[in-house]
Structures are given as C-alpha cells and as structure tokens.
Amino acid sequence: MTSQAKTNVLNLEELQEQLNHVVFDHIDTALNWERAQSKLQPLYSQAVAYFKETVEQNDGAIPKENSHWMLFMHIASRLVYFENLIKQNMSASLDEASLDQITEGYVAAAKILPNCQSDYNEEYFNEINKSLQQLTEGKAAVEKVSAPLSECLQTFYRYIN
C-alpha cells in the first residue's frame, strides 16, 4: 500500500497510520525486529524519495515552512529513529562503523524533530536520548534544542544525502 497521492503530495495521515501500526504490532507489542524492518523500510524509502523529489522540483531549494512539512518532519523523525532502533536490535554485536551510523541516525532523529519542547515531543525526544545513551553506554546524548522547521528540513536533507 502506498501513501503517494495522484498530485505528488504524500498522504501524511496514511503514512503516520502505517508507521503507528508497524511500531505497535512489531516493536511495542511483539519485538519482531525482522518483520518491523520489512514493514518500515518501504515507508522510510517512500518518505526519503518524496522529500528528495520535492527538493529536486524546487531546483534544489528546501521546501518552505508550513503545516504539511511540520507534520512530515514529525513522521520523518520517527522513521529515522525506528529504522536505527531496529538496526541496533537486529545485531548481536555492532562494529564501530555500524555504531557510528546508528548514533548518527539517533542524533538526526532528535535534530529533525520540530517543537521538541512540547509535552508529546519531549517524551519522544527523551526516548531517542535513552536509546542513544544505551547504544553508547552513556557516552553520547543530544542536547534539546527547539530548532526552527527550516533547520529541521535542512538537517533531514543532509542526513539522507
């Protein structure tokens, strides 16, 4: 099932619903990491492709701030976080390159989260930091900074390229 509409606008409500199902069914409830990865990867790829296509259609310019992109970044942050959480949990031992890659993913997930000061996002931000600290045995943490949406969009673009 795809969340792409005929007008080349990603159906964010559907994407969020699909993400919620993956998290609930395969991470929160069952801890089925392989199944979660197989369901999450297409959603992540779809969001990345949509964002890259939008930037390309705007002659390389990051999209302007609006409610669509605010919601997109909330979802993108969760996609990045859960993709890296799955990678971390699917491996019995991580080499240094994998550890660095997952660390970078957690940091990106935190930095692309708009309005991390809100109660809902603060709880999620704390979850990202907890995972990062577990991964790095307490050696790394992300400072809570409520960046403007334009900065979140730029950070996401750098992360996926």
Structure description:
The chain is an all-alpha fold. Helix content is 69%, strand content 0%. It is built from 6 helices and no strands. Helix 2 packs antiparallel against helix 3, helix 3 crosses helix 6 (149-160) and helix 4 packs antiparallel against helix 6 (149-160). The longest helix is centred in the first third of the chain and has 25 residues, at 33-57. The model has no long low-confidence stretch (mean pLDDT 91).
Topology:
Layout: H1 12-28, H2 33-57, H3 67-90, H4 96-111, H5 119-135, H6 149-160
Helix pairs in contact: 1-2, 1-3, 2-3, 3-4, 3-6, 4-5, 4-6
Helix content: 55-70%
Number of helices: 6
Class derived from helix and strand content: mainly alpha
Overall pLDDT: 91
- Low confidence ranges: none
Q: Alpha-carbon distance between the termini? A: 26 Å
Q: Give a short account of the largest sheet.
A: none
In what range is the share of β-strand residues? under 5%
Calculate Rg over CA atoms.
15 Å
* Global morphology: globular
Number of strands: 0
The tally of domains stands at 1
- The H-and-E topology, N to C, reads as HHHHHH
